[in-house]
Amino acid sequence: MSTTVTAPRGQEKQQQEAPIGSRWRVLLTPLAVLLVGAATIGYTRFAELDSTEARSLSLGFLADKLWEHIGLTTISTVLVLAIALPLGVLVSRRWMRWSTPAVLGIANVGQATPPVGAIVLLAATVGIGFWPAIIALVVYSVLPALRNTMVGLQQVDAALIDAARGIGMPAWRVLAKIELPLAVPVILAGIRTTLVLNVGVAALAGFIGAGGLGEIVVAGVNTSRPVTLLVGSILIALLALLVDWIAGLVTKALQPKGL
Amino acid sequence: MTLWEYIASRSDMLAFQTLQHASMIAQCVLIATLIGVALGIAVYRNERATALATGTTSLIFTIPSLALLGLLVVPLGLGVWPSVTAITLYALLPILRNTIVGLTGVDSSLVDAARGIGMSRTRVLTRVQLPLAWPVILSGVRTATQLAMGIGAIAAFVSGPGLGDQIFSGLARVGAANALNATLVGVIGIVVLALIFDAVLVLVGKLTTSRGIRIHA
């Protein structure tokens, strides 16, 4: 008897982890982010800073960098989704199935590429600035997103697809009504990962002068100012936590009913 | 200068940095495996402790690597320590999570049977539960290793060891001679190392997975 209880328990736990953790964390995260953020910004207002620190920690500069960071993350994520979702659907069609191992293999090698390497390579070949950084971000995170779409579609029960075809649905309706809705949880989890990953990789864009909060960290190290370094790091961390939180809520809200 | 000439002219230094990178990752992942598995064993029976442990590690995991390195530089200074700490912390989450999933996935009737034939708790753990959970734990170690490779590259920014140094010296010389070569050597070196480590771990999995469950794994 106990056999039948244990196995599903393990699965349940995995599924619970996928959304956002326990209930208290739902409000705790934004509160903690706000608190630490306010304390950090407050500190830069009242502490005695030398001119180098003051320059990289002025309110206007911080706001600019934050805005650039959000821009880098959003634009690259939208581009990644625009590429990965249709491509994922395409390569998981029955007549494209032969390409699956090749695509997954490339995706695995791509994941082994260090993101900072991808960014610097782009800088060395294309040039420095905003758009090379966007290209690097897209190149880096398109593969995990693609893999997630494929895995999401693959795990849809083939019997359901057969049944849908059997009651006379054309292939595109099977895709729209059966496969995609059933794949949504996995795809959404993938989008959330992509988004959070991109906040982190966008921080590396600071290395190649593409803006973003990473520039504050780079400035902190280059000018040996621990305060600047700390403020930049804290702001990046807070942004990532906040983005993860928002994405978690959206993921929950968009979950198709009946799953 | 072509890529090959670049490699040939600096082969000693490159070999040293590659070795340094490999040994840094191997040590960090080893420490993370020991901590992760021990922590997993300690918490998997208690739901609250499990939630706390996975919650904390996934919080660390969400913090981007550059930010975590920056936060660690302030108390630990530049160099090896912040790099090693950051890599170990990142490697912890997949290992811990998979240890918990693996251990809770062990059929409880097997544990009952082992207890029934008179095995002690420790022996049940070492002879039944861990061997059965091992393939899952090992796949966590593989994920952790791959992550650690990429984060190891950023370590050079805080004067950490390894091939990241090539990438950052390429960055410092963008537009000048050898910038592309240095970056390429760093990136390709890390990718190759990642693939080698992964292959080794697959082999380790083949050799260490208990014979009775090899078909499932």
TrEMBL record, chain A:
Q: What Pfam families does this protein map onto? A: BPD_transp_1 (PF00528)
Query: Where is the chain membrane-spanning?
Result: 26-46, 66-90, 128-146, 195-221, 227-250
How does the record classify its membrane topology? Answer: Multi-pass membrane protein
Record flagged with keyword rRNA processing: no
- Any idea where the ABC transmembrane type-1 domain is? 66-247
Which PANTHER family does UniProt cross-reference here?
GLYCINE BETAINE/L-PROLINE TRANSPORT SYSTEM PERMEASE PROTEIN PROW, OSMOPROTECTANT IMPORT PERMEASE PROTEIN OSMW
Q: Which family does it belong to?
A: Belongs to the binding-protein-dependent transport system permease family.
Q: State what protein this is by name.
A: Permease
Source species: Nocardiopsis ansamitocini
Automatic annotation (TrEMBL), chain B:
| Principal location listed in the UniProt entry | membrane
Q: Which domain of life is it from?
A: Bacteria
Instruction: Give start and end of each ABC transmembrane type-1 domain.
Output: 18-201
Q: Name one Pfam family in it.
A: BPD_transp_1
UniProt keyword terms in alphabetical order: Membrane, Transmembrane, Transmembrane helix, Transport
Q: Which GO terms describe its cellular component?
A: plasma membrane
Residues spanning the membrane: 24-44, 56-81, 132-159, 179-204
User: What InterPro entries has UniProt attached to this entry?
Assistant: ABC_transp_perm/SBD, MetI-like, MetI-like_sf
For biological process, the GO terms are: glycine betaine transport; transmembrane transport
Compartments, as annotated in UniProt: Cell membrane; Membrane
The membrane topology of this protein is: Multi-pass membrane protein
Sorted alphabetically, which PANTHER family does this protein's record hold? GLYCINE BETAINE/L-PROLINE TRANSPORT SYSTEM PERMEASE PROTEIN PROW, OSMOPROTECTANT IMPORT PERMEASE PROTEIN OSMW
The record's family statement is: Belongs to the binding-protein-dependent transport system permease family.
Q: What is this protein called?
A: ABC transporter permease
- Could you tell me which species this protein originates from? Nocardiopsis ansamitocini
The top of its lineage is:
Bacteria, Bacillati, Actinomycetota, Actinomycetes, Streptosporangiales
